[in-house]
Amino acid sequence: MARRSEHPPGTGPALISERLQLLYETHRPSRPYTDAEVAAALRAKGYTGSAETLRRLRTGEHDNPTASTLTGLGEVFGVGAGYFLDPVSVEAQMMTRTIDELSDGAREGLAAIIKSTLEMERAARAAVDSPKRKRGQTTD
Questions:
Q1: How far apart are CA 63 and CA 5, in angstroms?
Q2: Over 80: is that where the pLDDT of 1 sits?
Q3: CB-count exposure of residue 31 (10 Å: 0-12, 13-18, 19+)
Q4: Residue 84 gets which letter from DSSP?
Q5: Entry pTM
Q6: CB count, 10 Å around CB of 69?
Q7: Which residue has the higher pLDDT, 95 or 89?
Q8: C-beta neighbour count of 133 within 10 angstroms
Q9: What is the 3-state secondary structure (H, E, C) of 36-72?
Q10: Torsion from C-alpha of 25, 30, 31, 37, nearest 10 degrees
Q11: How many CB atoms lie within 10 A of CB 56?
Q12: If you placed Cys at 77, which of 11, 12, 23, 68 could pair as Cys (CB 3.0 to 4.6 Å)?
């Protein structure tokens, strides 16, 4: 029986496995990648890695990939190698990757929307918190 990583989800090798699986499933809209396709893409970029090694990484059976493997996977999927190790939320990293694909004008527009939304949320929170403070309640 295959050995599964004993690290908690979202850390160490478990994080690598989760992030790699997410890229397989979401990077291409038509269908998930196969291990053989990713191995071929790694070789095309000058990296090594077999379909079996990728399967083991993706399922958490292999828990010690080389820096070269993570760098190559990053290049294949258009993310930095740190994507596989950084515990910052996947959603934040995926949004960043998507935003990077936008034109300069679209990024500026998106920044204005985010700024406006933050200002509205802060104002709404302040309005809710103000009566509580007057009554001596906390927001914790």
A1: 7
A2: no
A3: exposed
A4: G
A5: 0.59
A6: 21
A7: 95
A8: 11
A9: HHHHHHHHHCCCCCCHHHHHHHHHCCCCCCCHHHHHH
A10: -90
A11: 18
A12: 23
